[in-house]
Amino acid sequence: MNAVAVAGEAVAETETARGRTTSEWGSRAIRIVSVLAAVGLWQLLTVNDVRAGLRFDSLPTVTEIVAEFGEHLGKDQYYLDIAQSLIRIVTGFGLAAVVGVLAGIGLGRSRLLADVFGPLTELVRPIPAIALVPVAILLFPSDESGIVFITFTASLFPVLVSTRHAVRALPTIWEDAVRTLGASRRDVLVRVVFPGILPGVFSGLSVGMGVAWICLISAEMISGRLGVGYRTWQAYTIVDYPAVFVGMITIGVLGFATSGLVELAGRRITRWLPREVAE
Description:
Blueprint: H1 2-47, H2 62-73, H3 76-109, H4 111-124, H5 133-139, H6 143-169, H7 172-180, H8 185-223, H9 228-237, H10 241-269
Helix pairs in contact: 2-10, 3-4, 3-6, 3-8, 3-9, 5-6, 6-8, 7-8, 8-9, 8-10, 9-10
């Protein structure tokens, strides 16, 4: 009888796994179809020069954009711009991740640090990072340093604020429990605080990555010499609209890929957390 029950449970688990796989493939198919439908609608509206409140007749068609994309893929300049933008985003975002997590923990656990630096943080946080371009130009000796500074500032505050909130949301009973077992302050940070705030930290990192790309591209358009943003703005100034859309698509793909890497890292690092299974 026990063997029959075990066999039944195994069959049920197998059927559940198959159902999940089928659901995942169905979800992926819907996503692909939605993108293809949007592309098809774009082509239909632009080819037929539709004017229905919006002037689709002035936009390039999908085929023109694809042809321009093919030309860009054959040029070394395209890959050089991508590499330059990636270097800037990795540098600025990486610094913001380290500083934001450490500062968030400090502000969340130390009343003294919160009193000294908290008001300054709240005063600077609402200022858009792109508004700091004049400051970056005056403060740094090179445009490159200024662009990295703007990217760093843009992604810093989402990480810092998310980390600070995660620290303050930790149940105090966790810390009390390990302290009763003789844990030191360092043990509390390593074994309780840091693991406990990881979900909040990665939420801030995901938001920070998106904001970092927005401000990076804006900074490249204003004061850059290389990069996807600079090349996109240059294409606009010479009225090369297919190249503008190539730049926009490239920015979207790069942002999607980097945000996906952050979320993947978050899922891997926090895989020990209990998760709800979507039915």
